[in-house]
Amino acid sequence: MKPLNPVRISGREVLPIVEGGKGVSVSNGESAGAFAAAGAVGTFSAVNADAVDENGRAIFQTYEGTTRRERYEELVAFAIQGGIAQARIAHERSNGNGRLHMNVLWEAAATERVIHGVLEGAKGLVHGVTCGAGMPYKVAQIVSSYGVYYYPIISSARAFRALWKRSYNKYGDWLGGVVYEDPWRAGGHNGLSNSEDPFEPQDPLPRVVELRQTMAQFGLAHVPIFMAGGVWYLRDWADWIDNPDLGPIVFQYGTRPLLTRESPISQEWKRRLLTLNEGDVFLNRFSPTGFYSSAVRNAFIDELDARNGRQVPYERKETAERATALPVGARGRPVYLSAEDRARADAWIAEGYTEAMKTPDSTLIFVTPDKARTIVTDQQDCMGCLSACRFSNWAEREPWNNGKMADPRSFCIQKTLQSIAHEGCIDDNLMFAGHNAFNFATDPYYANGFVPTVGQLVDRICTGD
């Protein structure tokens, strides 16, 4: 294993090891501060971060607004308050070591306002801002105005080229690094393009070499690239270290920090990580963002998979292809299916999936009455956690909807991520993880259920294991 040489990140030389940001209270000030204290880079998430009371306990978020826009304003206030709180905790835990970054998602609610609010309220405590989930053209201008470095999260050289040419070239001095997030192996939301096959992972090395070549064209050969997604044993990446074709490389860990003593996830969640098998992390497109995402296959994912499977196209008026009527809704108004699809629908109805719900793509899905009520309630309770949501049809612009019918094939991401983070119910909620999470079960470091501190994990990573 080659020695790890320090890399200059956000104005200081640190270990080339970064904690990946994970939203809704999964990477917080405790974990970020511990990574910084170990001489690495810690990252807390400002995506619906927890504010804390005088005893350091998370304050449960309750919404009083009667409209989506009112609840949206409450959510933004919670995010800013929580981001400031977690920045302060991270700063205290870091003991002045390492670097502290804040992670935001460009397609989350009011991201520009949240960045401004947290950086204003936690001046001098945040050294860098990582931002992905979309094309964050404005993040360079916003973050650099506070004297803070910015780190775009991209999945291709083409994406970085577009960002640089449109915006980043004006703020090049504050580009601290570029995070290459492998769209096939990373956890959470993934940046797969329409031209890429979700079932055919590509080798990250030539993609990162292409990114470096693109950056070099813009005079950025010295700027670090963070390799994120699929990193576990550094010995497997030895040919990346000191590789002249890659330049300065840093390794970002999103999944391994989940199983540390400082990690805020529940004990049940930590125990589940130790039992995962290869293939248990599922690349899917159920997210209300419209992006692909990687999550542990559990009852929550299985229900979504089955819900989407009970789906047939329909017409509002009879056609030659679809001439068989099916009454739907409280008034029993007919829609028209093919004879084959009507037979499938009848079979689902006989199994208890008696509620036919319309989708924006002129299809019907079939669910139980209880599930239909839950879906409608969750759609009505929307608090605008995303810039645009296909599940509830919310959008944070006039006329405050995305112009489409709410889509019952998806789910309320705010509800489920808050639930798994604070209530610990791991089977009935979305559980994000990277595709290499199965290594917890086979890596001897975690034998007999061992859970390291962040400091111990950083030391272990530096050995190559």
Task: Write up what this structure looks like.
The structure is a single chain. Strand 15 (324-328) and strand 16 form a beta hairpin. 31% of the residues lie in helices and 17% in strands. It has an 8-stranded parallel beta sheet with strand order 3-11-10-8-7-6-5-4. It has a 3-stranded antiparallel beta sheet with strand order 9-13-12, with no helix packed on it. It has 465 residues and is of the alpha/beta class. The protein starts with 6 loop residues before the first strand and ends with a helix.
Question: Descriptors for this entry?
Answer:
three-stranded antiparallel sheet; 13 helices; TIM Barrel; 465 residues; eight-stranded parallel sheet; 2 domains; 31% helix; globular; alpha/beta
Low-pLDDT runs of 5+ residues are none
Largest sheet descriptor: 8 strands, parallel
Rg, rounded, reads 23 Å
Tell me which CATH architecture of the largest domain applies here. Alpha-Beta Barrel
Principal-axes shape call: globular
User: What's the name of the CATH homologous superfamily of the largest domain?
Assistant: Aldolase class I
Short account of what is shown:
With 465 residues, the chain is an alpha/beta fold.
List the helices and strands and how they pair.
Layout: E1 7-9, E2 12-14, E3 17-19, H1 29-37, E4 41-45, H2 68-94, E5 99-105, H3 111-121, E6 128-132, H4 139-144, E7 149-154, H5 157-166, E8 178-181, E9 188-190, H6 204-217, E10 225-228, E11 249-253, H7 267-273, E12 281-284, E13 292-296, H8 299-309, E14 311-313, E15 324-328, E16 333-337, H9 339-350, E17 355-358, E18 363-367, H10 369-380, H11 413-422, H12 439-442, H13 454-462
Helix pairs in contact: 1-2, 2-3, 5-6
